[in-house]
Amino acid sequence: MTSVTRIFDFPYYQLEQYSSIADALATKKDGVWIKTSTEEFISKANAVSRALLRMGIQKDDKIAMISTNNRTEWSIMDIGILQTAAQNVPIYPTITADDYAYILNHSGATYCFISDVEIFEKINTIRDKVPALKEVYSFDEIPGCKNWSELLLLGEDQSNQNELEERKEKVLANDLATIIYTSGTTGTPKGVMLSHNNLVSNVLAIVNLVPFPAGKAKALSFLPVCHIFERTALYLYQYHGVSIYFGESIEKISENIKDVKPTMITAVPRLLEKVYDKIYAKGTELTGIKKKLFFWAVDLGLRFEPYGANGLWYEIQLKIARKLIFSKWKEGLGGNIELIVSGSAALQPRLARVFTAADIPILEGYGLTETSPAISFNDLNNKGLRIGTVGKVIEHVEVKIAEDGEILCKGPNVMLGYYKDEKLTNEVIVDHYFHTGDIGIIDEDGFLKITDRKKEMFKTSGGKYIAPQLIENTMKQSRFIEQIIVIGEGQKMAAAIIQPNFEFLKEWAIIHKMDIGKTNSEHVVHEKVLERIQQDIDNLNEKFGSWEKIKRFELTADVWSIDGGQLTPTLKLKRKIIKELYKEQYQKIYS
């Protein structure tokens, strides 16, 4: 029986356990799902490996991959690269061309595999700045660019398969597998070195916490696979014999979900907030008894506690709500959804409650790129789910809370270090414990709760500590607030710069027969808009101490985005840059 100790063992384990799954991987092309069986997956990965050996790839060579969307070719190349004892260096497609150059040079990548013409054009602007880069191959057919299918042809001849088997044999569990450059909210990207064991141990530790019928489930993958969260999920799916359908794009998620009818998806909180807002908006359009029933069900959902903690009468009502209302929510997510795994940022507890009440359980986990990623995870079984926490620490991982509240982590999931940066590695890994930079507590039952980022906490001029993430997450419960940054370091009070939800603002203005102007710039200065947002802030402020309350705010007409520089590729706030961009608003608040 195949023992999974290295990343490339996953597809072989799948073949052995579940025979050949016809749709092990599936990508939509020209409106048709092109399916790749487990057998074909392995066969093509081997062809890629044989081709790479013929191209002179040596142990510890670096091969970069930049893909706009998740696709079958990425997974085949991933296994093909790793089998040769080389390392896969995935790069975020949305970063600048200069960042491409920095990562390619810093990692020393000799080849780069890209998805499409947009990336090709971007990479061509910096080709002359990357002397070590021998060639670029594309997954799409692009004039003037070599195609990845050339590797499949070059690797068709199996005469060097023995050489490949010898190379595979020499790959050890603790060998370097990948370097992931974190997007970072400040400074140049850091190359996180992860071994085969880092990722494999993480998958095996959570495999029993994710309940779906092995060999019979479907997953829709659309979060960027260059990010460790989605990549580890792919290996988990492979281990469980789950068919992986790659979403076309974030814009087409709704369409793909209806098409694929997945059993499970991974998501980030921002996406779940948008799904909930859309459902809620539809509810407000209902009339009469239907509207009353909808909001009765929502109210019930917002009070949800797992394991029947609310008593028998609540459970009876919930059963009725699921049949009458929540079943339609489930239908909107394809009808077969059994599980959503949320990560990358803090999830609002109300979303976990209402979706889980709707029989669409959301399991929130916690981790970082440096921890492969999972440190803790909620578990539907064994009373292992506690809303408002990130679950219990996973098997073989140890967590302790430092005197200043920082979460320290030790275990097989902790990275090998930062590539070419021993000094920084030694700063964050002390006595085998990785310093996460997050502040948290472990409750009496062993559940971990994150309260904030250590670096993001600040003091007011009165010496009071502010944890901005906690306040921001609460304020985003207002349907008028799309993005918010809490400010006030060294100032006498906490304040905020807000990007309103312009789509919702327009709908609200139509319902109330109100003219708030035609442009975003007009919306953000309109008296009625400011009054209405103030109302929500006043209500949500009640949850905080006097020093934490948002005393003043300014609205921005910009829609915050990755391209606009306000957000990282994983949709986190670039705090330093936002403060710089909105200096005028900052001064207006504190002048």
Automatic annotation (TrEMBL):
Classification via PANTHER family: AMP-DEPENDENT SYNTHETASE_LIGASE DOMAIN-CONTAINING PROTEIN, LONG-CHAIN-FATTY-ACID--COA LIGASE
Cleavable signal peptide: none
Pfam family, one: AMP-binding
One annotated GO molecular function: long-chain fatty acid-CoA ligase activity
Keyword Transferase among record annotations: no
Gene3D superfamilies: N-terminal domain of ligase-like (3.40.50.12780)
Keywords assigned: Coiled coil, Fatty acid metabolism, Ligase, Lipid metabolism
This protein's name: Long-chain acyl-CoA synthetase
Coiled-coil segments: 523-550
Record carries keyword Transmembrane: no
TM region positions: none
Stretches assigned to the AMP-dependent synthetase/ligase domain: 31-419
Organism in which the protein naturally occurs: Flavobacterium gillisiae
